[in-house]
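User: Is it possible to get a 3D structure for a protein together with its bound compound? The compound here is thymidine-5'-phosphate. I've pasted both below.
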Amino acid sequence: MADKKRGMFITFEGGEGTGKSTQVRMLCEAFAEAGITAIATREPGGTPEAERIRDLLVQRDGGDYDALTEALLLFAGRREHVVKKIIPALEKGEWVVSDRFADSTRAMQGDGMGLNKQVIENLYGMTAGDLKPDLTIVLDIDPVEGLARSAQKTQSTQNKRVAQEDRYERMSVDFHRRLRQGFLNIAETDPQRCIVIDAAQTPEAVHKQVVDAVSQRLNVSLKAVKYG
Ligand code: TMP
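Assistant: Yes, that's possible. Here is the predicted structure of the complex:
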């Protein structure tokens, strides 16, 4: 079989209530319309084993971990996700769009919880090796607005498990401000890989900017899809 061109790896990052999952879904629809096979995935999670680790971390009663323990759990899940899902898909020529990846650990466990940044990079090297997103889209919003949006979403869901996924949302606004700054710093330090988009805009307007960024930076021709 002829070698297939490796797929591209795109990540969405940002605070709570920035609309990442909506943007992941719309971008994958735009890829489908353009005839590009793309899979949507998420972290924590993405494989059955990593989804079990996710529950420990995001559920209200999941536990109370020290920052390094939390990072070890996250990287254990990430390892499963990377070796069993992300790399095999990229090698098949599929594109992968992930709702969060390692920048979330840098911002949340690093800037938010004070874990040493070098420890995070060491864990990254051990578990993900050379894998690096080709493009990272940071969705940025004021944390007060983002947390309000996120609370509304959690309250309106009928799914009990999803309704309890608020362990991080319950942390202080100060914590969420540190995260926002953390994500902005990552984007500033690595402008080749990252782009920041204002998430206070409508989902359609954000999607349009996402489609433009992906088209320009990854050399594809995408058209925006309808919201809803
Ligand atoms: P979600 O609500 O965006 O699905 O993400 C679940 C939570 O997990 C979110 O509050 C951020 C948190 N998280 C970390 O703290 N570190 C990480 O590395 C990842 C991937 C997520």
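The first strand starts at residue 9 and ends at 14. The CA atoms of residues 9 and 96 lie 5 Å apart.
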